[in-house]
Design goal:
One of its GO terms (cellular component) is ribosome. By secondary structure, the protein is mainly alpha-helical. It is built from 5 helices and no strands.
Length: 107
């Protein structure tokens, strides 16, 4: 803890020291997208295409059923956090929170 004043009393009492700057742990990088991971995911997406529930969600989004698409994906994938890790839910959430579906965004 870096102390401001070499005082014996108060909130900042004690000997004046400088704080050690520690290197961030490797576990803090968890989930970060690397070039290689992005390449592999893009390649798999290109070869395999979309899952059936993803295709259905895209159809729902085309007809401005954003909330319904979000519910469908939540039910299929599990929790909201898992949706975010997969990278599905963020765009749907954003369109719902802004109050515009895909049809209204063309302005």
């Amino acid at each position: 803890m870096a102390l401001r004043y070499p005082m014996a009393v108060g909130l900042n009492k004690g000997h004046k020291v400088t704080k050690n700057v520690s290197k961030p742990r490797h576990s803090r990088r968890r989930g970060r997208l690397t070039k290689h991971t992005k390449f592999v995911r893009d390649m798999i997406r290109e070869v395999c295409g979309f899952a059936p529930y993803e295709r259905r969600a895209m159809e729902l989004l085309k007809v401005s059923k954003d909330k319904r698409a979000l519910k469908l994906i939540k039910k299929r994938v599990g929790t909201h956090i898992q949706m975010i890790f997969i990278g599905i839910g963020w765009n749907i959430d954003r369109t719902i929170s802004l109050g515009k579906g895909p049809c209204q965004e063309k302005d």
